[in-house]
Every structure is written in C-alpha cells, then in structure tokens.
Description:
The protein has helices at residues 20-24, 49-52, 75-81, 88-96, 116-127; strands spanning 8-10, 26-34, 39-47, 58-66, 99-102, 110-111.
Amino acid sequence: MKAQQGEQVSIGVEKTPASRLATEARLVAAVAERRSDYEVTITIYREDAADAARGKRINVDRYMVWERIPNHLDFMKMVNTASTEDNANMRGFLEEYVFMVKEPPGPDHRLAEVPLRVGAVVRTRRNG
C-alpha cells in the first residue's frame, strides 16, 4: 500500500480476500490506513438491513494486513507457534504473500452513518 502512515485511502476490495463483501453486502466504503512499516488496517463499511431498524445501518469490519512479516516484532513467536523455522524457504514464502486477519468487532461496529472523513476519502476517489 502506498499511503503514508496515518493517511486513509479509498480502496477497491474486489482484488482482496474480502472481495465477497462487494457481492454479498451493500458495500458503502472501503478504506486502508498504514499503521506502521509492516501493518495496514483495512476498514469496510457496509449496510446491514437488520440493524437499520435500530438506527445503526452501517456495520464496520476491520482487517489487519501484515506486509513484510519478518519485520514484525512478534516474528519469532509466530515462527515458533507455527512449528517451523526461520529459514530461506520460510522467508521466500513470506516475501510472496500478504496476510490479512479479521479483527474482532470494536465499539464502533454499528454506526448510523459513515464517518465524514471516510466519506470524503471515498468521494475523492470516485471523482478523481
């Protein structure tokens, strides 16, 4: 991802493991934000008819994307948990893949509307 740390950018989820959200739900917005040299958060805003009756029509799902896993502070813990070794084969595998992990729902999992900042980012992408 080319965004600077702390900057949100609108993304198309069609080419990510979350692509089913674009077909199974009414996708309202998808933004990515770089958190560090190796972590990106993808936030998906989608309409949920079941929650609309309660005034919270938007569901928020977050995914942590890890790039360059060996730079991650817990890399050796991950290697040990996976019962593998930090060798050339492992490094090659990690260079080829990006890992995307769904985060647990946060306190803002249900919203009445998409946050203004996110709406502005998405409009900029559509108009750009």
